[in-house]
Design goal:
Elements (H helix, E strand, L loop, with lengths): L13 H11 L3 E5 L20 H10 L4 E5 L6 E6 L2 H7 L6 E3 L4 E6 L8 E5 L2 E4 L4 E4 L11 E4 L16 H11 L17 H15 L5 H12 L8 H40 L2 H8 L3 H14 L2 H26 L4
Antiparallel strand pairs: 1-2, 2-8, 3-5, 3-7, 4-5, 4-9, 6-7
Helix pairs in contact: 1-2, 4-5, 5-6, 5-7, 6-7, 7-10, 8-9
Amino acid sequence: MTNNPTSSRPAKQPIAIEALSLSHSGWSVIPLKPKSKEPLIPWRELQRRRLTEREIIEIFERHPDANVGVITGKVSQLLVLDADSPSVVKRLGSPLTPIVETARGRHYYFQLPDARIRSITHIADGLDLRAEGGYVVTPPSLHPTGKRYEWVIPPKGLDPLGPEPAPPPAWLLELISKRRAHSRPVREIIYGVHEGERNVSATALAGKLLGCLPTEDWWVAWELLKSWNAQNKPPLPERELRQVFDSIARRELQKRTLVENEQHRFFKNLVQFIQKNFSQRELARALNVNQSTVSRRLKSLPYLVSASVLKQKSAMVREFCLQSDARSVGSAAPKK
């Protein structure tokens, strides 16, 4: 690089000023070809170290029409969700965090919870993940279609009132843990994990425990998760652990309710079909039992599949969550 005297002061192009601001925020900046997502320079090294201010100024002085991006993963401590369908993210919920409007959707910037999370294509319908080994295009770059990338919610490094990247929501950690489950079984995390792995591991373990226990025994899952967390180095704050647990519990309950509703409809239709097409005498003969047994069983079937049973189970889980929240708040209160 040349010792141009102008290199000692910030370049005047808006894109260069933006690149410097992103770099000052602690993010690894990557210059991209004009109106393109393609890197302008070899970028493998930029996954390990950030460009200096002088390097950024000189690159954008030589290429004033270049686009700019940010390397995701460990070097920037960033995880970015690329959503072609922002409505999906809105429905599932997202904390206050920097957001970019792209040509086809939005980018959601989150803290990197685990340095070993790598970029994942199609982590769910319309959702891609950019982490270790990836990068994203940032404003004010131009998309090949001519649309300019724009901040919907700029980060604190660009706007004093803007937010820092938030921790990823529990549903996103659950998606990540499911994709990683094939390469890292639960037996490898059961004796505790280190700081960068706690959220993802807690999500995976909570999903396993809640998925194999009846709802009335979910308090056991919570106690086991707390015991596991005590082995972590350091443990997650209990309030944060509780948020992960409750989020997975709500999703598991929703799945079970859908299944139970399907079962309810099936058995209800089955009972109606039997009662409409067969007499109790015919059923007794076919099943080789006496008629009084058939009558007793038919009377009990509607109760077994009644909606009131489902409501009772849901109320039981809600009561458990409220009691656990109260215990968590009580344990977090300062002792007098």
